[in-house]
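# step 3/5: fold
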Amino acid sequence: MITDGLAAARDAFARQDWKQAYAGLSAAEAARTQLSAGDLECLAIAAYMLGKDEVSADVWSRAHAEWLRLHDPKRATMHVA
């Protein structure tokens, strides 16, 4: 079940298991699960920690847009360089 995989990915992120977090969040997204803005942030961080800079930048942009869509500009600007 995809929600179990997403929960496992969130747990891996909390444990700083970047490889498992990235794999789980990427798999959830590939299965067309709508990731929350927070999940997108986690995916961006995990990608960055694994040296996937282009992926990280793309996902940060998507997280930024999602926070704006949710009317939370403060959160949207937290990670803008």
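# step 4/5: annotate
The two ends are 36 Å apart (CA to CA).
# step 5/5: archive (pending)
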